[in-house]
Amino acid sequence: MTRLRVLAAMSGGVDSAVAAARAAEAGHEVTGVHLALARNPASYRSGARGCCTLEDARDARRAADVIGIPFYVWDLAERFHDEVVQDFVAEYARGNTPNPCLRCNEKIKFAAVLDRALALGFDAVCTGHHARLEGGRLRRSVDPGKDQSYVLGVLTSEQLGRSMFPLGRSTKAEVRREAAARGLAVADKPDSHDICFIADGDTRRFLRGALGSAPGDIVDESGTVVGHHEGTFGYTVGQRRGLGITRPAPDGRPRYVLDIEPATRTVTVGPAESLDVTEISATRPVWSGCPAPDGPLDCLVQLRAHAEAYPATLWHDRLGEPGLGASGLPDPATVRIRLRTPARGVARGQAAVFYDGDIVLGSATISAAGPGH
Fold first, then answer.
1. pLDDT tens for each residue of 77-129
2. pTM of the model
3. Is 196 part of any domain?
4. 51, 52, 101, 196: the active-site residue
5. What total of structural domains would you count in the chain?
6. 104, 126, 290, 299: which one is catalytic?
7. I need a labelling partner for 279 at 20 to 30 A (CA). Which of 126, 213, 234, 341 fits?
């Protein structure tokens, strides 16, 4: 086995601790690093429901001590704020629904961190993500309930070639048992949830503070005003609760957010069946598991984290230099996706990740969705 210099990203959770321990046990020269991402740590989540908190930094350091590896803290707070937090706010302002964890993987953990690691002479970055790497291709974890291949689907083939995911062949229960056997105090630490940079978990209030109040109308599909809102940023396609509707539907059935138009400050609501989507357009494709297809490609498409994957056919419409996407680099093109069965709650700004069975072929960012013809 080739002995590598490995930088282990240690979040302070059980997964990254066990991943670092496995890399060290495999004979690699491992150094642990915790990412300080909060410009004001007190404003980020704390305790078991957090991520990237002061408690997490202490837990990561203790885990590194038990494993017996060097440990450092890297301050990436400004870059995290600019490329993840500000992106999150800007996407909601455009009426989209971003995934900040996916953006953090793309811009921070596998761009900023990997670039710095390579510059310092490391060969690879190791993380505790539940996914497999085989032959340079990203695959789903053996634990379907914890699989994180979706949020890694934005990575290029070059980034994957410098990555290690030691947990992909283990279930979460196995990881926790191993952590306990290794004497890692994080063995029973609960998983993090929600958005780390929204301290109280109230996304609508956070966005109102960042964007200000922007009142508008809530309308039904006929254009009739059925309520009012303080900002379109407080809504996402498929949302049912907390809509602020003052007039019930004539048939008494629940209504859902169908569309968001920040320019007119309008939120459109309607019945569940109006959420059905079979045609999707997506931009900024990345092809890590195959060359950019020259014709129709039958595959599975996952449209949200931890959601089902839909059988589909996609077409890659090149708008830029032919072949640019074949290396796994972002391609100035559009992917057109036709689902075999309708999906609901498809929101602009989310990722569409393409699979061949459990192998990730690539991904793109959803820009439009509709019922098709």
1. 999 999 999 999 999 999 999 999 889 988 898 888 999 999 999 999 999 99
2. 0.90
3. no
4. 196
5. 3
6. 104
7. 234
